[in-house]
Amino acid sequence: MEKIYQSLAHEVHALQDAGVDGLLFCNEHDLPYSTSVGVEGAAAMAAVIGRLHADIRLPFGVDLLWDARSAIAVARATGASFVREVFTGVYESDMGLFAPDFGEIAAYRHAIGADDVAIFANITPESSRSVSNRPVADRAKGAVYMGVDVLLISGPAAGAELELSDLSEAKAAVGNFPVLANTGVKDTNVASMLAVADGAIIGTSLKEGGSTWTRVDPERAARMVELFKVQREVTAS
Predict the structure, then answer these.
(1) Coil, strand, or helix at residue 172?
(2) Does residue 237 have a pLDDT over 80?
(3) What letter would DSSP give residue 216?
(4) Is pTM, for the whole model, over 0.70?
(5) Which residue of 2, 50, 85, 228 could cross-link 68, Cys pair, CB 3.0 to 4.6 Å?
(6) Domain CATH code at residue 202
(7) pLDDT at 236 over 90
(8) CA–CA separation, 161 and 128 (whole Å)
(9) Residues 6+ apart with CB under 8 A from 64
(10) Cβ(130)–Cβ(93) under 8 Å?
(11) Tens digit of pLDDT for each residue in 216-232?
(12) 228: left (phi over 0), alpha (psi -120 to 50) or beta
């Protein structure tokens, strides 16, 4: 736990000093993934966020792959603003058949007093494919109708560039509803991504060497923040 804490303390300070808008705590290194993380995973994440709480100056979210209930519980316990998970659809995935029950999950969120925890819903989840093969537009409209707060579009894996056509299709389907690019945003494509998306969740390209498994590189993070500022000014004009 001490090693985890020290690693996250570096990430939190590096990202906040770079000027990012928010933070996301995720158990990305917790391989192999499962659709249920267990109480020990949730307890560990809650403990380390609690220890870091005095240092966190920004809104933050929680992602416990691929366990939406646990993510919501940790978010409620730690004061997180949002959770990032898969909430709708049925998928054939590297973790087996995956079919989240959003009705049950939403009821659980209400039961534990977490209605103010926003639902960031990944509708093209990594390491999987939709069993129904419904168009992205239909999945986007369906998730919005079901009551999610933000839509996320992903590529095939963490750090992998998403299909711009998927992003465009989702955004066109839901209009002003927020849609974020969830994987593969980097300095060479940030302009094209933000020309469509309302924002992005970025991890891999902020790391040393552009690797998902290394530490945040302060220079890479600061460079991405500057690129976002430029693109926002372009969009505003």
Answers:
(1) helix
(2) no
(3) B
(4) yes
(5) 85
(6) 3.20.20.380
(7) no
(8) 15
(9) 26, 27, 37, 41, 42, 45, 70, 71, 74, 85
(10) no
(11) 999 999 999 999 999 98
(12) alpha
